[in-house]
């Protein structure tokens, strides 16, 4: 039909188009580059209106539109608003026939997707954008990228992925806004005041749609997108988790168990945990009562001559009667190495695997009334567990390190006599360690109190004794007199000389006397070099070229060991565990490489024994290793507590320095 005059105005035409576009199967736009005079007299049920290309731009994106031109040359003159649609040339009878056949026989498909398809595609882009932003902010994703991509390209990759996320979100929001506006208009059959939202084809409508969608995308990224973490934040977050893990592993007696929620309270891991926590945190996060309770457990677990007082068996039986059944206390032996043996013997007499916590509290509460303590003529120190009646050198060294670190705690809430007591205990332990030096291996230390066999000397026992003496020798702690410090410095120099003598160009082996000459352990080597770097500057020591040789070797082979899984650590060979002709067998210790390499590379980045290029290489390796902190965190979560403790120590030492600083 011929439109009335109201429809020929811009607003009238656009209103008419909006009202009728959803009613028609399709619209046919006839275009001529030369104005057409007259109006069709018959429309055969269809409606006709004169439109301009700009008015056509108000059509929704999913409208089915066909364009017909009266001259073939008009194809090249089509306005931009009409170019997206399917075009037919009707300049000849044959062409018009083809056009009619197409209308009758061919399915009419819109240039753009249907609303449902477009909504699905738009939602998919938005979902992909959100997923990409979430995955990109995931700490393991960041750790993987920083570990496997050259650090020069990491910022470019981050910016590139941010661009991809923005494009996905903006294009998705554009399409969703268009579909939403079209759907609302169709359902409500109203004239929406924000008609530009359907994605009109005029430049200003396109610009308005893009600007609105871009604003939504930016708001999402700024407000809702998970924030990515810097490497420092990742490191600090993981250190906090490791510290919390150790705190959560406190047993009923205040000591640390082998693992979270399981295992025995152990002197060794308790000392390691204290050394790690006290080097990482202040007393604000680790209250003094917790420190002292752990140290008290350690002191009570020391191997001594523990004897029952007269009449104590009967009194113990009476006190423990509510908790222990069918136990004949008369069968208790007269002496024990420590209270763990007391608890174990009573449990055995009662037919139980172990005593209840209440029973253990009773024994602890009456220990001074029912028992006497006598020091052994040759102090043993501490075993791997309380059930051992022979001590291990490295466990005693760890105890000394924990106690010296406790003395360093800033603003402690010690009772008046506690620091003095700790200093006396450190002095006793250092004397025990001195007694473990093997005379025929001057500077080399035995893992047990037997020093008559030169082949007993072990690298780990030696470096732990060296570390304990180094920490205790700090002048500000005032543990030793000037003359005692002088003698202690001599011991330190001897241990350093022994390490230089037993070193291979690649590092150190657990047992230098082992004839198989297996490859030195990287973890043990890194820890040894870190401990050597802790020797106070007040100790006059010789310069051993072999140490520099080892450092350079580690830098030269970094491409291999920096790619090593953090869980892949060396264990002492079985043959190195046996201390014949005794029946004592030492642990097949695992030597972690990752935390000690963190410490080592930071130290080497400022090591004056290396040139500028080597120091720069160490600095780059230090950064690369820090980027694997999440991977090591996974290892911490899946293994024993000593892993978390050594992780805290390694990262705590990464600032370099000596024990006196």
- How much is the average pLDDT? 80
Give the total of beta strands.
10
Query: How far is the N terminus from the C terminus?
Result: 97 Å
Give the number of domains. Answer: 4
* Main CATH class of the largest domain: Mainly Alpha
Q: What would you call the structural class?
A: mainly alpha
Number of helices: 25
Characterize the main sheet.
Answer: 3 strands, parallel
Order of strands, widest sheet: 1-2-3
Radius of gyration: 40 Å
pLDDT < 50 stretches? 1-10, 192-200, 655-661
Using the alpha-carbon principal axes, give the shape: elongated
Structure in words:
The chain is mostly helical and 661 residues long. It folds into four domains: 5-105, no CATH class; 115-224, no CATH class; 305-374, no CATH class; 393-652, Glycosyltransferase, CATH 1.50.10.10. It has 25 helices and ten strands. It has helices spanning 10-20, 53-56, 93-105, 115-137, 139-148, 154-188, 203-224, 231-247, 267-280, 288-300, 312-320, 339-349, 357-365, 367-370, 393-408, 418-434, 459-472, 482-502, 522-533, 545-556, 558-561, 594-604, 612-626, 629-638, 641-652; strands at residues 27-31, 65-69, 86-89, 257-259, 262-265, 305-308, 335-336, 371-374, 570-571, 590-591. A three-stranded parallel sheet has the order 1-2-3, with helices on one face. A three-stranded antiparallel sheet has the order 7-6-8. Helix 15 packs antiparallel against helix 16 (418-434), helix 17 (459-472) packs parallel to helix 19 (522-533) and helix 22 packs antiparallel against helix 23. Mean pLDDT is 80; it is low at 1-10, 192-200 and 655-661.
């Amino acid at each position: 039909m011929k439109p009335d005059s109201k429809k020929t105005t811009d607003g009238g035409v656009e209103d008419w188009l909006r009202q009728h576009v959803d009613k028609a199967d399709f619209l046919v736009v006839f275009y001529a580059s030369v104005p057409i005079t007259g109006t069709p007299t018959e429309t055969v049920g269809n409606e006709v209106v004169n439109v301009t290309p700009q008015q056509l731009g108000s059509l929704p994106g999913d409208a089915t539109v066909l364009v017909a031109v009266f001259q073939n040359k008009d194809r090249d003159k089509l306005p931009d608003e009409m170019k997206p649609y399917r075009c037919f040339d009707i300049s000849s009878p044959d062409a018009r026939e083809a056009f009619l056949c197409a209308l009758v026989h061919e399915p009419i498909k819109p240039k753009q997707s249907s609303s449902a398809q477009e909504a699905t595609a738009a939602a998919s882009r938005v979902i992909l954008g959100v997923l990409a932003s979430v995955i990109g902010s995931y700490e393991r994703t960041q750790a993987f990228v920083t570990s496997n991509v050259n650090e020069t390209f990491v910022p470019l990759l981050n910016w590139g992925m941010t661009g991809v996320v923005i494009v996905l979100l903006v294009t998705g929001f554009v399409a969703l806004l268009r579909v939403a506006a079209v759907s609302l208009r169709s359902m409500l059959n109203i004239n929406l005041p924000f008609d530009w939202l359907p994605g009109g084809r005029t430049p200003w409508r396109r610009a308005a749609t893009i600007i609105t969608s871009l604003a939504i995308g930016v708001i999402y990224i700024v407000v809702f997108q998970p924030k990515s973490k810097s490497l420092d934040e990742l490191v600090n977050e993981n250190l906090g988790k490791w510290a919390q893990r150790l705190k959560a592993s406190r047993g009923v007696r205040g000591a640390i168990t082998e693992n979270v929620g399981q295992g025995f309270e152990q002197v060794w891991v308790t000392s390691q945990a204290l050394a790690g926590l006290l080097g990482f945190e202040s007393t604000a996060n680790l209250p003094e009562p917790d420190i002292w309770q752990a140290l008290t457990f350690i002191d009570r677990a020391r191997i001594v001559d523990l004897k029952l007082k007269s009449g104590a068996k009967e009194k113990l039986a009476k006190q423990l009667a509510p908790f222990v059944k069918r136990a004949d206390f008369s069968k208790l032996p007269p002496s024990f190495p420590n209270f763990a043996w007391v608890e174990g013997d009573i449990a055995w007499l009662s037919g139980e695997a172990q005593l209840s916590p209440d029973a253990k509290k009773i024994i602890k509460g009456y220990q001074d009334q029912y028992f006497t303590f006598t020091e052994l003529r040759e102090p043993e120190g501490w075993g791997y567990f309380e059930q051992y009646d022979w001590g291990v050198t490295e466990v005693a060294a760890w105890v000394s390190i924990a106690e010296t670190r406790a003395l360093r705690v800033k603003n402690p809430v010690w009772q008046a006599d506690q620091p003095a007591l700790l200093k006396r205990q450190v002095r006793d332990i250092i004397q025990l360690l001195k007694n473990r030096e093997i005379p025929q291996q001057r500077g080399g230390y035995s893992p047990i109190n037997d020093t008559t066999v030169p082949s007993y000397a072990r690298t780990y026992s030696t470096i732990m004794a060296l570390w304990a003496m180094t920490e205790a020798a700090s002048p500000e702690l005032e543990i030793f007199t000037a003359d005692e410090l002088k003698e202690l410095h001599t011991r330190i120099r001897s241990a350093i000389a022994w390490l230089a003598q037993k070193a291979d160009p690649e590092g150190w082996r657990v047992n230098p006397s082992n004839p198989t000459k297996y490859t030195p352990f990287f973890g043990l080597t890194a820890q040894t070099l870190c401990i050597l770097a802790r020797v106070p500057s007040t100790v006059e020591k010789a310069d051993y070229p072999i140490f520099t040789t080892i450092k350079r070797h580690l830098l030269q082979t970094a491409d291999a060991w920096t790619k090593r899984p953090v869980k892949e650590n060396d264990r002492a060979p079985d043959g190195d565990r046996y201390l014949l002709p005794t029946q004592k067998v030492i642990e097949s210790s695992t030597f972690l490489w990752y935390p000690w390499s963190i410490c080592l590379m930071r130290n080497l980045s400022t090591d004056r024994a290396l040139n500028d290029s080597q120091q720069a290489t160490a600095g780059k390796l230090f950064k690369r290793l820090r980027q694997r902190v999440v991977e090591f965190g996974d290892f911490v979560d899946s293994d024993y507590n000593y892993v978390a403790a050594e992780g805290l120590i390694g990262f705590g030492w990464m600032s370099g320095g000596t024990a006196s600083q």
